[in-house]
Design goal:
heterodimer; A: 411 residues; alpha/beta; Aspartate Aminotransferase, domain 2; Aspartate Aminotransferase, domain 1; 2 domains; 16% strand; globular; B: 166 residues; alpha+beta; Sufe protein. Chain: A; 36% helix; 15% strand
């Protein structure tokens, strides 16, 4: 049934080829961090073994190869997300740092008392806390787009919320419910209101084709480790003229043209926002991850995950019925491959513990989205999320383990 | 299911299903303290009455959490009710020592730092709480088991620093 040859793909992921207590490892936590194929690991090893030096500085050949690897990765990212120029692609430590960069370098000069920004109740703490920290300091207002019972943005009052707002910072796909937000509509409404738009695209970029130019936002943030790349690297895409007008974020080497005892002159894009030695091997690994994803095809990946999500929703319902409450949209096409659920009155932590004894890796907790948890009236959910290396066998293993958890706690 | 029976002992499930001292007390006179497990979003709220002689005359537990945190809170409430604050603190030390938390300062900051381990010379009988010993094999869950105890310590600290809330 699958759009992908999962058995073939799994051969590229050495970590998945292991057993836990004699049972096949079932990894269903890619929304937190994905696994990575040999191709990514080899690209990083290859750099470290043959082509590593610091970038942008040395004149020797090794340094030139390292710089080419690093800048080549930037080009791959730019092409992958449809950026107009590599100047618009800033490498950061992770998506969290990318959002903090915008908060610091765009937010600080542009927000103050009497101003307002708009967030949504679907946001990850990474797109909440940086703004709350800044609001404490600068005294602007934070408004919230509410969420419907099935975990979608409630846009009834969108225009009122955006009235007079300077920024809309919103996710393109919830990391809790998988809800895909109507980015086109949100961007249009924000543009209308004269507000800038930041999209937290951590969950969507790894799983579906992305075109930042068509999206029309001003900033897009995502991380490498959720898209088969290594941890330690994230991306901020920003509209070139906007990035150009912003002051630097972190200060240090690599982000300057000149430094005197009187002061410094900042470098141009994208170096201005990349102080210090950057994540060189991580960028190369991310580039290799993009190559891998493109070989498979983002549309095929999306189709595979919609099919798998539909299968999971159907099987959970058939096998566990009302014992399972799935949060988020019931229509598979309206969501990514992220399933948050409650198993009767068994706490997510206990569900996850029993599932671990069956070698099924899912995530219990608030998923760094406490405002959304509060909206759903729960302290925690259990979350299973799929990627290219998962298939219906994994879903069957999940459902079988959930039945054990149900029986263990004798519901 | 390897080791699961060590974690989910019958008495733990019993306290989870039928928690003791569940509810709230009026504040004041009772003192209210709340603790969070930032890992999983669990929350425990303790309402505690301490009389002039330093006796825990009443305690109620509110909040939500997993079987381990809820049963630990339930057993804790049953164990400290009627005891002196000093005995409750000693019991906290004994319990946390069983949880491999060797902290000289069992303060209200919830810190599980392995500070210089203070020898526990007053080993108190743990009774039902012994059932939680298996949690040690599941390090991630230790914080679940200690959440209510940290909150209790925090309540005592708060009471000591502001006796007026009595």
């Amino acid at each position: 049934m699958s759009s992908l040859d999962v058995a073939l793909i799994r051969q590229d992921f050495p970590i998945l080829d292991q057993r836990q207590d004699g049972k096949k490892l079932v990894f269903l936590d890619s929304a937190a961090s994905s696994q990575r194929p040999r191709q990514v690991l080899s690209a990083m090893d290859e750099l470290y073994e043959h082509s590593y030096a610091n970038v942008h500085r040395g004149v020797y050949q090794l340094a030139e190869r390292a710089t080419n690897g690093y800048e080549g990765a930037r080009k791959k990212v730019a092409d992958f997300i449809g950026a107009g120029s590599t100047n618009e692609v800033v490498f950061t430590k992770n998506a969290t740092e990318a959002i903090n960069l915008v908060a610091h370098s765009w937010g600080r000069p542009n927000l103050g008392p009497g101003d307002a920004i708009v967030l949504s109740m679907l946001e990850h703490h990474a797109n909440i806390v940086p703004w709350q920290m800044l609001a404490v300091e600068l005294g602007f207002e934070i408004r919230w787009i509410p969420v419907t019972d099935d975990g979608q943005l409630d846009l009834a009052d969108l225009n009122t919320l955006l009235d007079g707002a300077k920024l809309l910072a919103v996710t393109s796909m919830s990391n809790v419910t998988g809800s895909i937000t109507p980015v086109d509509l949100l961007v249009a409404a924000a543009n209308n209101a004269g507000a800038k738009v930041l999209i937290d695209a951590c969950q969507s970029v790894p799983h579906m084709a992305t075109d930042v130019t068509a999206m029309g936002a001003d900033f897009v943030a995502f991380s490498g480790h959720k898209m088969l790349g290594p941890s330690g690297i994230g991306v901020l895409w920003g509209r070139e003229e906007l990035l150009d007008s912003m002051p630097p974020f972190l200060g240090g080497g690599g982000m300057i043209i000149n430094v005197t005892t009187e002061g410094f002159t900042a470098d141009g894009l994208p170096g201005k926002f990349e102080a210090g030695t950057p994540p060189i091997a991580e960028a190369v690994g991310l580039g290799a991850a993009i190559d891998y994803l493109q070989t498979i095809g983002m549309d095929e990946i999306r189709r595979h995950e919609v099919e798998l999500t539909a299968y999971a929703l159907r099987t959970l319902d058939e096998e566990l019925g009302s014992a399972v409450r799935v949060f988020g949209p019931s229509e598979p096409a309206a969501r990514g491959g992220v399933l948050s659920f409650e198993l009767a009155d068994v706490h997510a932590h206990d569900v996850s513990q029993i599932l671990d004894s069956e070698a099924v890796c899912i995530r219990p907790g608030h998923h760094c989205a406490k405002p959304l948890m509060k909206h759903f009236g729960v302290a925690a959910t259990a979350r299973a999320s799929v990627y290219i290396y998962n298939d219906t066998d994994d879903i069957d293993a999940l459902v079988a383990a959930l039945k054990k958890a149900r029986d263990f706690f004798a519901i | 299911m390897s080791g699961l029976e060590d974690l989910y002992r019958e008495i733990i499930i019993d306290h989870y299903r039928s928690p003791r001292n569940r509810g709230q007390l009026e504040t004041p006179p009772a003192h209210r303290a709340e603790g969070f497990n930032p890992l999983c979003g669990d929350e425990v709220v303790i309402f505690i009455d301490v009389d002039d002689d330093g006796l825990v005359t009443d305690i109620k537990i509110d909040g939500q959490g997993c079987s381990i945190s809820q049963s630990s809170a339930s057993m804790m409430s049953a164990a400290v009710k009627g005891k002196s604050v000093d005995d409750a603190k000693a019991l906290t030390s004994t319990f946390k020592s069983m949880m491999s938390v060797h902290s000289a300062e069992i303060g209200g900051d919830g810190s599980e730092a392995d500070a210089d381990a203070q020898a526990i010379d007053t080993e108190l009988p743990l009774g039902d709480l012994e059932a939680l010993r298996g949690v040690v094999k599941f390090p991630v869950r230790i914080k679940c088991a200690t959440l209510s105890w940290n909150t209790l310590s925090q309540a005592f600290d708060e009471l000591a620093s502001s006796p007026d809330t009595e």
